[in-house]
Design goal:
Distance between the termini: 65 Å
Number of domains: 4
Number of helices: 21
CATH topology of the largest domain: Serine Threonine Protein Phosphatase 5, Tetratricopeptide repeat
Helix content: 40-55%
CATH class of the largest domain: Mainly Alpha
Radius of gyration: 27 Å
Strand order of the largest sheet: 15-14-11-18-16-17
Largest sheet: 6 strands, mixed
Strand content: 15-25%
Structural class: alpha+beta
């Protein structure tokens, strides 16, 4: 193959993403540094998927249009150091492809060299033994291939890059201490292997007649608890009034691990610092900011060391049949879920939806062969669906509950002695059979669905977003809500009390007397909602 056209390039990008996704846990396993942006495999996968999504939205008809979408999508979705550096490799390659109607061997060699140069330029203090080294070796080896054949050029680069990867522990002492090769470098090699596979239909190891290189789990490295910088900050700036060079000089005074990339329309940066407030202030003075991500690395560090030590001390680390993962908000609700068997609780809800990365991280933590993910909010559904696609775990059952109370009903229906599909159906049935309402305080006057309310009134809202009752007294509204519910003699009414609400025995007695129902009371601890009410 002596030239690539638009369809070839589209296949290569998809193939690169697919191959990286297959191997992302292998890449994650090589992480050495216990920091929030340390999941190299996931960060690189999400960067590639963001690029693919942008390409899909734009439906490019020319190589120039593809290049524009590819570099913009990768920059906007870049996660962590590895994602940002990957976006800059893509930027350099696309800058060469821009004005071409097809890509021959000479153009490809030039593009790979530009991708390497662009990545090095983006890093203020380039360190060898990282993915920078891998792209440089790959690009340099590609220049030496005495052929215009596209596949041969890529294979020549991959072969030398893999050799360089084995040498990264000699270049970076922390890799040698951990007994691993560089994670980002391995991810990059998988990206290029995926491109070749898309063109040939064969894996690179088959073409080169090589055995896949074994990569071992890293040792627990004693990274000092006293990290120099406590916070990791990433964000995008639209229409910046400074150049990347100007902003880089300013931010360099505040922290380290600095990456500042972009152009006149958009800048993305990543920095570790002790003053995220100062970082945000400089960002705001530069332009309109979005996609802000700030993580406490010291907290992450402590959790990492604890979890790692716990994992290594486990005598029999084996999979169990089931694991339950749930998105929950409120200390009391978290306790309820854990008591009902949830292995991992992700903090999130109506006002703070978890990201795809947080959900994937939760999925990867549990050790069940079959994982039930209970989302408890309609706004979380898309992120959860994306997380299920991204994760390496193949048996994840997405339980589409719209409310935490529905999730509890689903858990109560779960039976560990049954098969996964039967449990999944039982949990879905429980959602349909559970009636849920929540009581909160109206923030303005209004009338919805025939129910009038004034500012400060207590109002009850069903899981279908219907306001069904309002009043000035809390207990009056709870009782009034039950009159609008399917509550009848023999029903089970469960009250989950919000933050600051104490158990009210008189309310219990009134419900029993009026509805002849059984009443259960739990402290949910949820903010903004005085009660969650379920009727079964």
């Amino acid at each position: 193959m002596n030239a690539l056209v638009l369809s070839d390039l589209l296949s290569m990008i998809q193939g690169a993403s697919d191959e990286l996704t297959v191997h992302k846990e292998e890449v994650n396993a090589l992480n050495v540094f216990p920091v929030p942006d340390g999941d190299t495999g996931i960060n690189m996968v999400l960067t590639m998927q963001s690029a693919l999504a942008e390409i899909s939205r734009n439906n490019p008809k020319t190589i120039k249009e593809l290049s524009l979408a590819f570099r913009r999508g990768s920059l906007m979705g870049a996660r962590g150091n590895s994602g940002v550096i990957l976006s800059q490799i893509i930027l350099g390659i696309c800058n060469v492809f821009d004005d071409e109607s097809q890509i021959d061997g000479a153009i490809l060699k030039r593009a790979l060299k530009q991708g390497s140069d662009s990545a090095y330029k983006a890093v203020m203090r380039p360190v060898e033994g990282t993915m920078l080294t891998i792209i440089r070796f790959l690009a340099e080896a590609a220049q030496r291939v005495v052929s215009d054949d596209i596949v041969k050029i890529l294979l020549g680069g991959i072969r030398e890059a893999d050799i360089a990867l084995q040498k990264t522990p000699d270049m970076l002492p922390v890799l040698k201490e951990a007994g691993v090769v560089d994670a980002g470098g391995l991810g990059l090699i998988h990206i290029f292997r995926g491109m070749v596979k898309a063109l040939t239909g064969e894996s690179v190891s088959e073409i080169l007649l090589l055995e896949p290189t074994p990569y071992k789990e890293p040792l627990l490295v004693g990274v000092e608890e006293d990290l120099e910088f406590a916070y990791c900050t990433e964000l995008l700036i639209n229409n910046p009034n400074k150049t990347t060079e100007e902003l880089e000089i300013i931010l360099a005074e505040i922290g380290g691990s600095l990456l500042v990339v972009g152009d006149a329309s958009m800048i993305k940066f990543h920095i570790h610092s002790n003053h995220p407030d100062k970082v945000l202030a400089h960002a705001l003075s530069t332009g309109e900011i979005q996609d802000i991500k700030i993580d406490n690395m010291k907290l992450q560090h402590r959790e990492y060391l604890y979890q790692k030590a716990e994992t290594q001390s486990t005598i029999n680390p084996s999979y169990k049949k089931y694991s339950i993962l749930a998105v929950v908000l409120g200390k009391g609700m978290e306790e309820v879920y854990k008591n009902l068997g949830a292995d991992v609780v992700i903090t999130g809800g109506q006002t703070m939806n978890p990201s795809v990365v947080e959900i994937v991280s939760g999925i990867e933590k549990v050790n069940g062969e079959n994982i039930f993910l209970i989302i408890n909010n309609k706004n979380i559904k898309l992120a959860a669906e994306e997380a299920v696609k991204v994760t390496s775990r193949s048996k994840v059952y997405l339980v589409n509950t719209a409310h935490m109370v529905e999730g509890i009903s689903a858990l109560l229906r779960f039976n560990p002695d049954l098969e996964p599909e039967e449990n999944f159906e039982r949990m879905k049935e429980s959602i349909a059979e559970t009636w849920v309402a929540e009581v909160t305080i109206a923030q303005r006057n209004g009338n919805l669905g025939g129910t009038s309310y004034n500012l400060g009134d207590y109002i009850s809202i069903t899981s279908n977003d219907e306001i069904i009752y309002s009043g000035r007294e809390l207990n009056e509204v709870v009782l009034g809500t039950l009159t609008k519910s399917p509550c009848q003699e023999g029903s089970i009414v469960t009250l989950y009390a919000g933050e600051g609400i104490e158990e009210d025995w008189s309310l219990r007695e009134k419900i029993v007397k009026r509805f002849k129902a059984e009443v259960e009371w739990y402290f949910g601890g949820q903010s903004h909602y005085q009660y969650f009410i379920s009727v079964e």
